Known about the structure:
By secondary structure, this protein is mainly alpha-helical.
Amino acid sequence: xxxxxxxxxxxxxxxxxxxxxxxxxxxxxxxxxxxxxxxxxxxxxxxxxxxxxxxxxxxxxxxxxxxxxxxxxxxxxxxxxxxx
Length: 84
């Protein structure tokens, strides 16, 4: 775990995931790209609750992807360096 810097990779992934989710949520919630075409109803949570859940899923998936990618890169580097 230390060789692959898994803890550091997860922290970086979480920062990237949360930043992306917040950016996408703000664009959607504030309608920075204009209003959404058509009308749609969100019966249980409302539109804001629905998009908060989507932002959570986006943040989680992005965190997993970035942390996995960084860990794979660290593993490849560790395998390629000659042991002393």
